[in-house]
Each structure stands twice: as C-alpha cells, then as structure tokens.
Amino acid sequence: MTSSSHHTTTRIDLFTPLKLGPLLLRNRVVMAPLTRNRAGPNNVPTDLNVVYYALRASAGLIITEATQVSPQGVGLPHTPGIHTDEQVAGWTRVTEAVHERGGRIFLQLWHVGRASHPSLQPSGELPVAPSAIAARGNTMTYAGWQAFVTPRALEAIEIPGIIEQYRRGASNALAAGFDGVEIHAANGYLLDQFLRDGANHRTDAYGGSIQKRTRLLLEVTSAVTSVWGADRVGVRVSPVGGFNDMSDSDPQRTFEYVATQLRPFGLAYLHVVEMDADGKNFDFHRLRSTFGGCYMANTGYTKERANQELAQGNADLISFGALFIANPDLPNRFATNSRLNEPERSTFYGGDWRGYVDYSFGETRPT
Questions:
Q1: What does the domain layout of the chain look like in residue ranges?
Q2: How far is 297 from 315, CA to CA, in rounded Å?
Q3: Which residues are paired to 273 by β-bridges?
Q4: CA–CA separation, 80 vs 257, rounded Å?
Q5: Which of 196, 199, 219, 322 counts the highest number of beta carbons within 10 A?
Q6: Contact, 120 vs 71, CB < 8 A?
C-alpha cells in the first residue's frame, strides 16, 4: 500500500505544472476552443466575451474559440475575427482580463474554407476550398440553416494570399496580448480540407500526394512561427473526425506524415481531437510518438481518464470542452472533487448571457 501511495505523489496528473515553451502552466487542464456565437457587430469581442474568458482564467491554458483570419474565413454568425483594428482592441480587453487573474490564453486562427455560405461571404461570393466539392449537410447562417454550396477551388496564385491571412492574424494576436496562437487544422475547415483526400482533389502542388496535401499547413505554420517563434504556436488536427463531411482514405498514414513534418518546427504542442467517428481504428499513441513534442489530447475526457493518460505518459495536456462551458472553475472542481454542473446544450451556440456567463462556481469563486 505504501509504495502505491508513494507513486501517486510523484506521478504526473492534471495538477502537475508544465513548462510550455517559455510559459509555466499552473495545471494541465486546458480550456478547448469552443465556438459560442456571441461576438458583437462586425465580429468584435464584447464585454460579455471578456467576462466569459476571465471567469475561466484558472485553466492552465485557455484556447479561444475559433477566430477568423479574414472576412473570407467567416463560416458562422456572431463569431469573432482577428483581422480588423476593432477586433484586436476587443481581444486586447479579453487578454488583459485573463492575465489579471494569472491565466494564459492562446488565440485559435481559423479559416473555414468551404464550410461557409455565400450569405456570410464578402459580396455574397462563393466560399473557397481546395476543390469544388460541396460538403454534404447544412450550415447555420443569419437566415437559419442552409445547405452547403459547392465552393470555388482556390487558384494556385491565390494561395500566398491565404498564407498571408494567417500571418497577419498571428501578428494581430501578438498585438492583442495573447500568449500564443493555435493553428486550426481540424474539424473540416480550410487546412483540414487540404490535408484530407476526401476534400482535396487538386492536381497541382497542393494536392494529390500526401506531401502536396500537407504543403499548405506547413507553409501556414512557417508563416505563423515567423511571427511568434515556434514555442508559442500549437496546431490542432482531427485525424478521424467526420465533422463537415470530412474523410481520408488512410488517416493513419496522412496524419503520421503531418506529425513527421511538424516535428522539426519545435512547436508548443500538437492538439489532437481523438474522436473515432467512422469506427476506423486509429493509433493515437503512435501519432504522439511520431510528433515527439508536447501532446494535447481532446474528446470526452473525464478527470479520471485524463489523470490515467497523463500518468501513463500518453498525453501532456488534456483539453476539456463542454465541461468548461458548464464549470468555469473546472480545475478547482477537479481538485476538490466537487459536483460538476451539467452543460445546457440548448445555449451552446448563440443567444445572450444565459448559459454563457451564469454557470455557478464552487465555494472558492474568484473575486
């Protein structure tokens, strides 16, 4: 009995601090990026967003909701951007509020690609994508749910402009006082559309072979790390996620190649959505060892399972989504084994303060 209790004092768990590049995270409980559709006019963060993030500053790291790098990158109503001075000013108030409470916060850089609708695009243009292949399903617009349209395939000559959108977004995030940025290459958005062969049927330098499909992500990563330094940049991927009608003929091969190519950058972390949507067996442990750096796991983790994965060395950080929506003081509740609030799913996307900043704290609510 004594030896096992001795082990628990030394083994890594959610409350073991972690050095992430130049940052010291006070715990390994990460707030996952969560679209909440509550930005103000012109996609500018508001007072409500400031309160929402400040309430969750006890996370080891907050990753913001997906934030578009350009007007072309918009895919949903009331989502924040990082491409205007007004948006930078709004986010600056968020980062100041989080830092005042000792928190750390990264901005997630987002371009939705085909997962948009002409009504959300500048001048009602078609959304852009690697290939002119429509996603099956519907998307939310200001006029309600509408079917995805067939996007316009990007011309090769336009791709440097896309990379520049990410570079400028990264630069604006730096100006807004963030601690780092996460490149969103998951969940069926633009970079994921290039990576996976279900959405990318190009025959030029950005499609076909796995090397060519990975090229845009690597060029974006180069641009973003040129602004921040690699140790303040993370990348998020979802190897087997089917969201936004995504698929790949060989996800293990595709994403191990991605990890191999990202490894030399020396990134802050690789953030992996570990869902297994279509029942394919995917070896996430192999992906982790291929990447070799800090590995952040996500999808349906409980406190118990998170601690088990951390103790076994299968992950370095765990990100929590719905639990963080409902429990702004999630690290404290985990630490004290307090009862968890239940998430109210009907208020996840859009609306007002209800279901956004009104979830109760446990006993030690910060002042």
A1: 2-347
A2: 6
A3: 298
A4: 32
A5: 199
A6: no
Q: What is the pTM of this model?
A: 0.95
Closest CA to 230 of 222, 238, 220, 240: 222
Q: Identify the active-site residue in 166, 189, 295, 359.
A: 189
Residue type, 150: T
Give the C-alpha separation, 101 to 112, whole Å: 32
State pLDDT tens for residues 186-231: 999 999 999 999 999 999 999 999 999 999 999 999 999 999 999 9
For residue 62, the cross-strand partners are 31, 105
The 10s digit of each residue's pLDDT in 240-256 is: 999 999 999 999 999 99
Q: How far is CA 187 from CA 47, 125, 192, 257, in A?
A: 28, 23, 7, 18
Quick one: CA dihedral 290, 291, 295, 297, positive or negative? negative
Helix 85-100 with 47-55: angle, nearest 10 deg: 30
User: Do 103 and 58 touch, CB atoms closer than 8 A?
Assistant: yes
Tell me, which fold does domain 2-347 have in CATH? TIM Barrel (3.20.20)
Can 189 be counted among the known catalytic residues? yes
Under 8 Å between Cβ of 316 and 17: no
